[in-house]
Amino acid sequence: MKKVVVLSAVAAAVMMAGAANAAEIYNKDGNKLDLYGKVDGLHYFSSNHSTDGDQSYIRMGIKGETQITDQLTGFGQWEYQVNANRPEDGDSSGSPQSWTRLGFAGLAFADMGSVDYGRNYGVLYDIGSWTDVL
After folding, report:
1. Out of the domains of life, which is the source (predicted)?
2. Alpha-carbon distance 60 to 58, whole Å?
3. Of the residues 50, 64, 70, 96, which has the maximum number of CB atoms within 10 A of its CB?
């Protein structure tokens, strides 16, 4: 019986690893605000010293939109990442252990697409998401 309980706990932990979750904070009168996050526990075994070891990270963000008119919507997003292996220090190359991944605001037009400004995914990310079938 004890082995079944341990196996069940391990199976549940494996299924939850790397899962992203979101919570809707506010949604009323065309205004919406979501809080989301992800915890990813990673450990690489490699002969390459730059990728070997703990590569765990935490991502958290907030995303919102507001209906300005029936043809115009304002939107924005901010996302922050903290490497969980040494969050207070930089690594040996001096690179930071926490940073803003995304931070942008924009306008979406009903018939013409959208425009945004800030730190966002680039065009290559969009092309990869359309063409990557795996």
Report:
1. Bacteria
2. 7
3. 64
| Per-residue CA distances from 64 to 49, 99, 131 (Å) | 40, 20, 28
pLDDT of the residue at 93 = 60
What phi and psi, each to the nearest 5 degrees, are found at residue 93? -85, -5
Q: Which two tokens stand for residue 127?
A: 């092309």
Model pLDDT for residues 42-68, shown as the tens digit of each residue: 888 988 877 788 888 999 999 999 999
Q: Which residue is it, tokens 């400004």? A: 117
Q: What is the average pLDDT across 86-106?
A: 76
DSSP state of 127: H
For residues 107 and 72, the answer to whether their CB atoms sit within 8 Å is: yes
Residues 100, 116 contacting (CB under 8 angstroms) = no
* Residue 33 CB neighbours (<10 A): 16
State the DSSP H helix or E strand holding residue 14, giving kind and residue range, or none if neither. Answer: helix 2-16
Which of the four pLDDT bands, split at 50, 70 and 90, describes residue 89?
A: low
